[in-house]
Amino acid sequence: MNRRPLRIGNASGFYGDRLGALREMLTGGPLDVLTGDYLAELTMLILGRDRLKDPGLGYAKTFLRQLEDCLGLAHEKGVRIVTNAGGLHPAALADAVRELAAKAGVPVSVAHVEGDDLMPYEEGALTANAYLGGAGITACLRAGADVVVTGRVTDAALVSGPAAWWFDWAPDAYDRLAGAVVAGHVLECGTQATGGNYSFFTAHDVRRPGFPLAEVAEDGSAVITKHPGTGGAVTTGTVTAQLLYETQGPRYLGPDVTARLDTVRLEPDGPDRVRISGVLGEPPPPTLKVGVTRIGGWRNEVVFVLTGLDIEAKAALVREQLAGPLAGVESADWTLARTDHEDAATEETASALLRLVVRDPSPDRVGRALTSSAVELALGSYPGFHVTAPPGPAQPYGVFTSATIEATRVPHTATLPDGTRVAVDSASPAFEARGSGAEPRDGGPGAQPPVTGRGGVGESPAGPTPRARPGGAPTTRAPLGTVAGARSGDKGGDANIGVWVADEAAWQWLRDTLTTDLLRDLLPETAPLPVTRHELPNLRALNFTVPGLLGAGVASGHRFDPQAKALGEWLRARHLDIPTHLLPPPAPEGTRP
C-alpha cells in the first residue's frame, strides 16, 4: 500500500542560524519531521575547542535554547525532530534533551546516533569524524524516537534517514534513496533554497526568507516548497542554485548511495513549488569520508588605510619598513585592495586597504609585539597613516583535511530510546552529502567531464555596442551575470563554482564558451590551479572545482573570502562577449533606477 508523501522541513542551516526558525516551522504548517543542520567544517573546530575546555561539551548549545521554547509544541503537533546538533558529543546532548523534557513535563522519547568520532586519530588532531549516513536515524525512528540527535552524519542524511523510515525502503533501493539525498541536499542549507544568497535576488522579496520543506514521495521524487505566507521564493532557479552548492562531479558519493546529479530533473509544480524527479542512484563507495581538524598555528593581522594619491608607493613603503620585524615569521601575506576612487567625494571612498596576515607555529613571533611594531610606524611612515584596529594578540587558527576510511571500520551505532545499542550495518539506507571527492569507480558518465577548448575572453573593448563576430551572431560586452546565475562554496581547501542559465539557447552558449581556460582568465586567482569542469545538462549548469584555492580551509583565514561564498558573484561580475539576443531587453526610459 502506498503511503502519503513525507512532509519534512529544515529549521537550521548552520550553527548560528535564525534562532526563531524552529518555532516558525512548527507553527507555519503541517510537518511530519523537522530537521536541523548545525555542523560544518569550521563548526567541528569550534566544538573541538569547546571540548578541550569542558569534556562534557562539544554539541551545539543553541539547539537546546530553541528546544526550551518548542519541545512541547513539537510534541503537541506530533512532529519528530532530527538534528546533527550532537556534534562531538551526541550522547551528552541527548541526555540534556531528556533533562529538558523532564523539567518541562513533556513525554518525549530521545535517541542518538554515534560512532563517527574516531579520536584519538593521529598526532595533532583536534577532531576526527567519519561522515555517517542515515541508517542510524532510521533505526532510532523505527524504535519510536521523538527526538533523534546525531554526531557527524552527512547533511542530506537528516532527510534520507527519515524517508527510509517513513517508506521502509530496502538498503538497495538506490534510485529512491538517491532522490531523498538530493532533496536533503536542497534542504540542508535552510533559506539558501528559498531565495537566500540567490544571484537574482532582486526578483523576489528575500528580506526574511522562509525555511524550506520537502514533500518526499515513495518513489523518491520530491516537491520543494515552504510554508504559506513566508518570505522568499521557491523556483527552479533557487533550487538549481542549492543543488550546485558545494558539490563536485555528477556523481554525488555517499555512505549508502551514489546520487547521479546529472539525472536530476526540475519542473515547476505551482507557486513556490518545484518538483525533483528522475534521480538515479548507484551503489555507494566502500569508504567513508573522514573530516579532521587540528590547530595549525597562530595568526594575526593588521589592516593599513592608504588614502588619496600614491597608493602603490605608500604600500611599498610600509612593506619595506616591516621587513625587519617580519624576518623569521613563517608566513606573511600582503594584500592591497584598491577600494579607492579617483577624485572621491568622501574620505572613505578615497581610501585603499593594505592587509597583512601573518602565521607561525609560535604565538610569540606573531603576537602583540609584531602588531605593535606596525603601529609604531604611525608618525614615521606614509602620509595619513592609520590602521583599522589597535594591536592585538595572536589567535590560534585551524586546519581542515579529509581522508577516507573503510566503512566496515566505523562503529555506526544507534542508541535507542530504551538505551539499547544497535550496530548499524554499513549497507543500510543512509547517505553522504556535499560529495566526498572520490572518483567514480567506473569510467561511466561523469568520470571524465567533457571540456571544450572554445571561448576566449575576447579582445573587444568594453561597452554596450553590439557587433558581429565573423560568421557569428552579434555580441555585446556585458557581465556574465546578465544571463547566468552562480553559487559557490568550500570543501576544505577546495572551492566550487556552479553556473547555470534559464533557457536552452543560453545553455548552448554557456556550455561552448565557459571553458576552464576562460574561467582562469576571468578569475586570475584560479590561474595556477588545476580547475576541473563538469556538465549537468538537465540543470543547464556547469560546475567547476578549484582545488587548493582556500589553502588549509576556512579556519586558517587563507584568503579574503575564506569560504568562497562570493566567488561565483565575482565571476558573474566579469565582462565577456555575450550574444546580444541572449541579453534581456534594456529597461524602458524612466524605469531605470
UniProtKB/TrEMBL annotation:
Name assigned to this protein: Uncharacterized protein
Organism, as annotated: Streptomyces lavendulae subsp. lavendulae
Stretches assigned to the Acyclic terpene utilisation N-terminal domain: 6-415
Composition-biased stretches (Low complexity): 461-479
Superkingdom of the organism of origin: Bacteria
Domain (AtuA-like ferredoxin-fold) ranges: 479-573
Region (Disordered): 431-493
A Pfam family reported for this protein in Swiss-Prot or TrEMBL: AtuA
InterPro entries, per database record: AtuA-like_ferredoxin_dom, AtuA_N
Span of the signal peptide: none
